Automatic annotation (TrEMBL):
Name by which UniProt lists this protein: TonB-dependent receptor
Native species: Rhizorhabdus histidinilytica
Lineage: superkingdom: Bacteria
Keywords, ordered alphabetically: Cell outer membrane, Membrane, Receptor, Signal, TonB box
Family annotation (InterPro entries): Beta-barrel_TonB, Beta-barrel_TonB_sf, Plug_dom, Plug_dom_sf
């Protein structure tokens, strides 16, 4: 079977539903010769590939034996990149976000959000086994991918060209994560690692006690809202909890005293931050029955890591960034990051039918302590008698949790196939006891004081709670054509309902009768808010939740969708896949106060891809489509949100509208050898009403981020990727007989520009403004890097597990926020500079007491590349965030039984 076109026809004939995911989604990509096959994937034989379709119109397993075109990327009708379990293992990344940043055109920004071809995470679609996922991040609808440990995933697909079987919210691409499948044999894998970095481990950091179970990522009830205050919140509606008809001074004192003010407020210095460690356990078994096979797979993982950042943080209110910054702080932030995850999968194969039930639990917690020293000139502006010098401390606790259960039935009846899929997912984010204290330097006493009344002297606490449920179901039917016309016809229906509730209640400690005396005002936070002081000096809790936006909101998104699609072989090496999707969507955000949002729209979304195999090992693709991008709930809700990564506050804009995208791509591909290729592509996107993150100044000169629709944007670019294997047996000697060098390289050049005029848009502060005042004509889209490059060089053994891999990643500067407007003048945009990063990963297999062992050594960020986020105007520069990023090293050991 040397003819690649003939093999492609066999693939089509063997497929019940030929969808993009059908050639990718299962973990069971072939185990390469450089390591033992993953026993959790059903892969057997010299050249066999199992490809399954959980997550999109599905296909039966395909077993292909041949010498040419075993490349899954080539066989798909769409433009895809596939990370198999072997690819993920080679990079050594602990979560899938880290592994995905090696894929052509992808970059990871912030807390695990993947950008595809320069389009922000809001233009990316994340699926788990083809089903939608809710996000535990209140600012995002897309789930942060650093939540997903690579140990529970079998593969990941990135599809960059749209096809009608996928949801219409498709901008840069879709990322389909596939969990591990039923094993072919009983296995057990136990692993652990220890790690540290040059900036954090063994160095100074800050933490606080919290609760007894913090080390496990759970709170023991210490951070629960006290019962009395919780009842008051529930009964208050939109009425603030203040002294008056409903609450006495004694009530408000009682609320203040009922809070756990010692365990959550006392920041502690740790001069020897501990090392990071992790452990994981994966096992599975299967057995044959009279009509098929039944199997179970389970996985558990735990990681506990620390990160300290010594950050320079500045802001300026001058349009040219001239003069002394408005604020400047040196802030030491220590994050204790704990992740617990579990997976339970049950599956059965009955004749030609497959059934699967997958359950996933991920809990990700960040405990953060921070201390800041610097100045804020607005203190002097409010009270000229006070100096601007401030000392601030914050203690935070961020819980993110995801529970997902999915059921799939893949039914095969000769030429007819039916796929049924249902999922329920719940995500939660709780941030209880968001505490902040601000002390102002007093030259009178020669110390920092906090009298709870003067400018720059305050104590605040906030409670945030988000809950989101996703209900989704779909049915797909396919029919194979095997007459004169070869191909597959597919059609399907999908239902998706997302429901979110979000609350944030903020309170201030204050004295209604004036400032505290200087002696009390000098006390540290836990003494300052002691029960004695609260009752002796009449310290009360004041509700300020509705001062800036809504305290709570409910949000819903309901989508009904149907599609039809055909993939046909036209002969002479020509294939065509075309289809159209209809989506009817209603999105609402209902706040407890202020403007709400109700967007109800329907779309027809066509997609067409043409593939021409003009040579035995070459093909050319053309693709075009129309897609949409809807505003995220958090972009619509006028509610304050503190992001622990960027250390900025965000708020929404209820007047945002949908974005429409028009996509085109052309690609040449050369598959010159097994698992080796060279490809070159060009792409273009036109976006109507793109949503851009835009900074603005809130009260007191606080820099905050909001959102606004720009009139139009265009994005275009080119990418090249190559994979080449170099056998080293020609060097002679037994050592090189089984060795090879693997080179994987890719580069993406992207250019984007906003097209704006003087039309009126609603700005992030909800004021109407001319578009060319808020946005600069020709400015790049937020999140878009002009240059993204990756290089992997791996020296490895083809007969046993032995690898040394060098990973070089580069991303050029990109805009994170549009610059704020001062009067009629606009400040420069806020820019992030990722720069170069060099990693080394070594993996070695060996036997110990008859057990297969794997040793992994990692060295990350050997370039010591710092993090920089700044504004620049000529020679003037303001650093919003600048800090060193340590060189990290880890040692891991895994036993496979």
């Amino acid at each position: 079977m040397n003819n690649p076109l003939a093999l492609g026809r066999i693939l089509l004939l063997s497929t019940a539903l030929m969808s993009p995911a059908a050639l990718l989604a299962q973990a069971a990509a072939p185990a390469p010769a450089d390591q033992p096959a993953d026993r959790s994937a059903a892969v057997q034989g010299e050249e066999q590939v199992e490809i399954s379709t959980l997550g999109a119109p599905a296909a039966r397993d395909i077993v292909v034996t041949g010498r040419r075109q075993q490349n899954v990327v080539r066989a798909t009708p769409q433009v895809v990149s596939v990370l198999s379990s072997a690819d993920i293992a080679r990079t050594g990344d602990g979560d899938i976000a880290g592994a995905l940043q090696r894929v052509t055109g992808l970059s990871v920004v912030g807390n695990g959000f993947v950008y595809v071809r320069g389009l922000g995470d809001r233009y990316s679609l994340a699926l788990l086994n083809g089903s939608p996922l809710p996000s535990p991040e209140p600012l995002k609808r897309v789930v942060p991918l650093d939540l997903f440990p690579t140990s529970i995933l079998a593969s990941s697909l990135v599809q960059k060209s749209y096809s009608a079987n996928y949801p219409g919210e498709f901008g840069g691409g879709v990322i389909n994560l596939t969990t591990k499948a039923i094993p072919t044999e009983t296995f057990l894998s136990i692993g652990g690692s220890i790690a540290g970095d040059s900036v954090t481990t063994g160095n100074l950091g800050y933490t606080y006690y919290g609760s007894d179970y913090d080390w496990f990522g759970f709170d023991d009830g210490t951070r629960d809202i006290p019962r009395g205050l919780k009842t008051a919140i529930r009964n208050s509606g939109t009425t603030p909890i203040v002294q008056g008809a409903n609450y006495s001074a004694q009530d408000l004192q009682g609320f203040a005293a009922s809070l756990n003010n010692a365990d959550t407020a006392l920041l502690q210095r740790n001069r020897n931050i501990p090392a990071n460690f992790s452990a994981d356990l994966t096992g599975g078994t299967s057995f044959d029955t009279d009509s098929g096979r039944v199997g179970v797979l389970a996985a558990f993982g735990y990681s506990n890591s620390w990160r300290t950042r010594d950050v320079l943080q500045q802001s300026s209110i001058d349009p040219d960034l001239a003069g002394i910054p408005q604020t400047q702080f040196q802030t030491v932030i220590t994050d204790n990051h704990v992740t617990v995850n579990g997976l339970l999968g049950l599956g059965a194969e009955v004749n030609d039918h497959k059934f699967r039930w997958t359950n996933l639990f991920i809990r990700d917690t960040v405990k953060q302590g921070r201390l800041s020293a610097g100045y804020n000139r607005s203190v002097e502006d409010q009270d000229p008698t006070l100096p601007a010098s401030l000392l601030k401390q914050n203690t935070y606790w961020f819980e993110r949790q995801l529970i997902d259960t999915q059921g799939v039935a893949e039914l095969r009846f000769d030429k007819l196939s039916i796929d049924l899929r249902g999922t329920y997912a719940n995500s939660q984010r709780e941030s209880p006891y968001e505490r902040s204290f601000s002390y102002n330097y007093s030259p009178v006493v020669g110390d920092y004081v906090n009298n709870l009344t003067s400018a720059g002297q305050s104590a605040d606490i906030a409670f945030s709670d988000l809950n989101e449920d996703v209900y989704a179901g779909s049915a797909d039917i396919g029919y194979k054509l095997d007459g004169a016309l070869k191909g597959t016809l597919t059609a399907g229906y999908a239902y998706n309902k997302t429901k979110r509730t979000s609350e944030r209640y903020q309170f201030q400690f204050f004295r209604p009768t004036g400032a505290l005396n200087q002696g009390v005002a000098q006390e540290r936070p836990d003494f300052l808010l002691s029960d004695y002081n609260i009752y002796t000096y009449n310290i009360q809790l004041r509700d300020v939740s509705g001062a800036e936006g809504s305290r709570a909101y409910d949000a819903d998104l309901v989508i009904h969708a149907g599609y039809g699609q055909a993939e046909i072989e036209l002969g002479n090496g020509l294939r065509i896949q075309g289809g159209v999707r209809y989506e009817d969507a209603r999105q609402t955000v209902t706040p407890d106060a202020g403007s709400g949002t109700n967007i109800s729209k329907s779309y027809f979304l066509p997609a067409l891809t043409l593939t021409y195999n003009f040579n035995d090992d070459m093909q050319f693709r053309l693709a075009g489509s129309k897609t949409v991008a809807r505003p995220q709930f958090r972009e619509l809700a006028r509610q304050i949100y503190q992001d622990f990564e960027s250390d900025r506050q965000f708020t929404g804009n209820p007047f945002l509208t949908d974005s429409k995208l028009y996509n085109a791509e052309a690609r040449w591909e050369w598959y010159f050898d097994r698992n080796q290729r060279l490809s070159l592509a060009g792409f273009y996107k036109k976006i109507d009403n793109p949503i851009e993150a835009s900074a603005f100044f809130a009260g007191g000169g606080v820099l905050r981020t909001g959102f606004a629709n720009a009139p139009e944007a265009q994005l275009y670019g080119a990418e090249i990727e190559a994979e080449k294997h170099f056998p080293l047996d020609s060097l002679g000697g037994e050592f090189f007989a089984t060795k090879r060098l693997v080179m994987i390289a890719n580069y993406t050049w992207t250019k984007s520009k906003l097209k704006v005029d003087d039309s009126i848009v609603i700005g992030p502060d909800l004021s109407p403004v001319a578009a060319n005042t808020l946005f600069r004509d020709g400015a790049p889209l937020t999140g878009q890097s002009d240059h993204i490059a990756n290089l992997q060089l791996s020296f490895e053994d083809t007969e046993r597990l032995s690898q040394i891999t060098m990973l070089l990643n580069y991303a050029s500067e990109r805009v994170t926020n549009r610059g704020p407007i001062q009067g009629t003048l606009r400040q420069p945009d806020i820019i992030e500079k990722p720069g170069f990063r060099l990693d080394l990963v070594g993996r070695q297999g060996f036997k110990l007491l008859g057990t297969d062992m794997e040793l992994k050594v990692e060295a990350r960020n050997l370039t010591g590349t710092p993090y920089k986020e700044f504004q620049r105007a000529g020679s003037n520069i303001i650093y919003l965030n600048r800090y060193k990023v340590g060189r990290s090293f880890s040692l891991g050991l895994t036993a496979n039984f």
